[in-house]
Design a protein that fits this description.
Helix content: over 70%
Largest sheet: none
Structural class: mainly alpha
Strand content: under 5%
Shape: globular
Order of helices and strands: HHHHHHHH
Radius of gyration: 17 Å
Length: 192
Amino acid sequence: MQDFLFYLNLGWEHIISLDALDHQLFVLALIAVYSYTDWKKILILVTAFTIGHSITLALSILDIFRVPSAWVEFLIPLTIVLTSLDNIFMKNKKQTLMRANYYLAAIFGLIHGMGFANTARVMIAKSQSIAIPLLGFNIGLELGQIVIVCAILILLFILLSIFKVNKKDWVLFVSSGVFALALKMTLERIPF
């Protein structure tokens, strides 16, 4: 149980800590087009991300494949750039965008999962089963994402209900801001 709690906390820190800005921006870009009434769809969306994340993390820990960390560190913000651009260019096609986001979450989750792989590979001993560490880490990651989503949805509720912010303006503002930050990260991490 102590190992499970250790990895649960590690997963939580992986998404909640100040060093996790890239993951937080990705979650923000993914859910920017949704409303607080879409909370079930959002839960499925972040779970799709966690599933993609955990698949790659497991494959990396088992040493089935490795991607150089410089490329992973470049690809992670690039996924955020692409998600933000998708929001901007598809802002008038909300239903299509929402369907596409499930695929983006799962596919880009595969890339984000590689970001923690090197650290996890070192932490999980060869003789240790990866089941408990992966389960704990992914539950912690999912809980952290839910907290981030709840905070964003509360902010969105306040902006839309109390301050009467236009939903399309919200999507454009958030997506543009996330795009700018992620583009800066991407350009700083070009691996060649």
